[in-house]
Amino acid sequence: MELSVLNIKGQATGKTVSLSDEVFGIEPNEHVVYLDVKQYLANQRQGTHKSKERAEVSYSTRKIKRQKGTGGARAGSIKSPVFVGGGRVFGPRPRDYSFKLNKKVKALARKSVLSQKAKANGISVVEDFTFDAPKTKQYLSFLSALSLTGKKTLLILPEYNNNVYLSGRNIPKTNITTAGDVNTYDLMNAEVLLISETAVSKLENLLNK
Question: What GO biological process terms are annotated to this protein in UniProt (predicted)?
Answer without folding.
Answer: translation
